[in-house]
């Protein structure tokens, strides 16, 4: 099971000091968070993609390419890549390039995006969000898997004899997660292709998350990729920790109350009771995250949002230290104990390459057997 950090890259005023970081400071902070994630032994760093204030990560592959050069083990991902407003050709090229730079330590999460004004900025219509997501991803898969592509669709100019460059590393495309909070069509898309399904798991109650994941697992099996238990699931979640739970609540409350996403709404107590947001001690975080298995089943990736709502970098790095030192080691051990033998590990470039080579070897053996059988039959007839 993989554990990591995801960030949405918001530039938000610190409500306790009144200071708002500059865009440069926020970008540098995101890089520091990624480097800290590797330092404490986490597996994944994922950055969002936004093209509107108050967010700064408009070019995820630029940031991830820099992080790749500063790290050795960290898997670099997105949360999310906008499959609706980005050109599939550019996604294919950018992430294949990043694959080569990072020696395969790359996957990505596809999403529609939830900011309406962004669509017309890129010449798209938000009312076509689902059809765009379906068509663009179908093209992206072909660009990564076919040397030469002829294609025609509704939303972009046709392609004739087009080859996306560079080709995916080892001829193995990056693993794709499809991220969605509320769209069953996206869960179906992930299931249809046998890709991963990632549920943000921050704003909605467990009952909703359970329905989405069960839909994905059922449809994954329906499309012949394996049993429902073998489907590849990821979850998000936000936590804030201090050694003493009362200190955590007291320190986090002003950030929660003024957060641009969920501030000025339900109380912190109500929100933590109704959603997966966990504010307390490391032990409370461990217990809460382990409980996700009750409605999500055995899953492969757990990402934490740690830097939202104006939290200063110093505090975020302290949170990541707690996560890496006191929380994740226990979660790894406990999830491993509970995990049935038939549940697959989280996909990596190495595992996907091994599966590809095994499949090719099986085909070669089958061909050889057919040739031998044909030869034997020929001898018999003669």
Spatial extent as radius of gyration:
22 Å
- Biggest sheet strand line-up: 3-2-1-13-10-9-8-5-4
Number of strands: 13
- Mean pLDDT equals 93
Q: Helix share of residues? A: 40-55%
Distance between the termini: 58 Å
- Unreliable sequence segments: none
Q: Structural class, judged by helices and strands?
A: alpha/beta
Strand content: 5-15%
N-to-C series of helices and strands = EHEHEEHEHHEEEHEHEEHHEHHEHH
Largest sheet: 9 strands, parallel
What's the total helix number? 13
Gross geometry:
globular
Summarize the structure.
By secondary structure, this protein is α/β, with parallel strands linked by helices. The chain has 13 helices and 13 strands.
Describe the structure in your own words.
The chain is of the alpha/beta class. Helices cover 48% and strands 13% of the residues. It contains 13 helices and 13 strands. The strands form three sheets. A nine-stranded parallel beta sheet has the order 3-2-1-13-10-9-8-5-4, with helices on one face. It has a two-stranded antiparallel ribbon with strand order 6-7. A two-stranded parallel sheet has the order 11-12. The model has no long low-confidence stretch (mean pLDDT 93).
């Amino acid at each position: 099971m993989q554990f990591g950090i995801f960030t949405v890259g918001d530039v938000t005023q610190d409500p306790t000091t009144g200071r708002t970081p500059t865009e440069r400071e926020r970008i540098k902070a995101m890089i520091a968070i990624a480097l800290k994630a590797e330092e404490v032994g986490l597996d994944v760093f994922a950055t969002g993609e936004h093209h509107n204030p108050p967010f700064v990560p408009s070019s995820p592959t630029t940031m991830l390419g820099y992080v790749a050069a500063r790290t050795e083990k960290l898997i670099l991902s997105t949360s999310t890549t906008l499959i609706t407003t980005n050109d599939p050709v550019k996604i294919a090229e950018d992430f294949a390039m990043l694959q080569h730079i990072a020696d395969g330590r790359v996957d990505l999460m596809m999403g529609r995006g939830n900011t309406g004004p962004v669509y017309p900025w890129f010449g798209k219509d938000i009312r076509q969000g689902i059809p765009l997501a379906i068509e663009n991803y179908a093209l992206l898969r072909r660009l990564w898997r076919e040397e030469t592509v002829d294609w025609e669709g509704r939303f972009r100019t046709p392609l004739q004899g087009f080859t996306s460059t560079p080709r995916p590393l080892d001829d193995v495309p990056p693993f794709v997660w499809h991220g969605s909070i509320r769209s069953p069509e996206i869960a179906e898309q992930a299931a249809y292709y046998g890709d991963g399904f990632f549920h943000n798991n921050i704003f909605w109650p467990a009952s909703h998350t359970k329905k989405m994941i069960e839909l994905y697992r059922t449809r994954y099996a329906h499309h012949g990729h394996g049993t429902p238990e073998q489907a590849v699931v990821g979850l998000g979640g936000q936590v804030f920790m201090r050694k003493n739970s009362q200190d955590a609540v007291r320190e986090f409350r002003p950030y929660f109350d003024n957060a641009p996403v969920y501030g000025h709404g339900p109380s912190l107590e109500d929100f933590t009771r109704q959603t997966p947001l966990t504010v307390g001690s490391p032990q409370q975080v461990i217990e809460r995250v382990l409980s996700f298995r009750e409605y999500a089943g055995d899953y492969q990736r757990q990402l934490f949002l740690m830097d939202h709502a104006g939290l200063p970098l110093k505090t975020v790095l302290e949170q990541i230290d707690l996560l890496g030192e006191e929380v994740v080691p226990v979660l790894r051990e406990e999830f491993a104990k509970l995990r049935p033998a038939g549940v697959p590990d989280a996909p990596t470039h190495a595992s996907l390459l091994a599966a590809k080579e095994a499949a090719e070897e099986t085909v070669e053996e089958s061909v050889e057997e057919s040739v031998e059988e044909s030869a034997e039959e020929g001898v018999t007839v003669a």
